[in-house]
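Worked example
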Amino acid sequence: MRRVISTTTLKRLMPVLAMAALLALASACDTDTPQNTFDTKGPVAEKQAEIFYISMWPALAIMILVLGGIVLLCLRFRERDPSFVPKQTHGNTKLELAWTIAPAILLLAVGIPMVATIYDLGREPADDALRIDVVGQRYSWSFSYPDYPDADGNPLTISSLQGPAHIPVDREVAFHLQSIDVIHSFWVPKLGGKLDVIPGEENVLWLEASEAETFSGQCAEYCGLEHATMYLQLVAQPEDEFDAWVEEALAD
């Protein structure tokens, strides 16, 4: 026989359920994670975080006002007398103008810095940017440095299965992204947003690390059964240490 939860029991469970939901929400707020987009370590990630906050705070304020108003109306004007008919109104010109003009102004205020940032980050890499050719395949990444050939003229190449790739600090790095099988997505959260890696096309993503650190990244596009293992690491280090690493890697 099916048991039905009584209204009284449900009311008693509501605080417990609300607390469980709050704890689940708070568990996602930990910033000590290797792929935390809010722990920005480069100019690209910083600018992307700025436009995120520009859009988030107005949206959060609107959500609180709208939901708060709905709760207030539900409590204040809930039915008490079934025969009571509230005053009927049809249209309010001032109110309708207000909720049309205000969002337009808000969208304009949010849209201008967003569009400016999109154009800024979408530019070509700097002339002195370090070029790295990245090839994605199930389920690894290959990093080639055409500016650093070996004795046979072949570029220094590192596979993510062998170890991390290295980049210099405070210098733009131009990642030329290609795929040899399916669509992948190149993503190093602390340095910047993701970019799709598409078979038959070359997409260019420029990033810059503002401090020495080992950055974790991964493929952000589901590409097969072992998609979760397609991660990568970038070691950002001072220019002299990067040059020393290149010499050592070419000597091996």
Summary: The longest helix spans residues 43-76. The first strand starts at residue 130 and ends at 137. The mean pLDDT is 89. The CA atoms of residues 45 and 192 lie 4 Å apart.
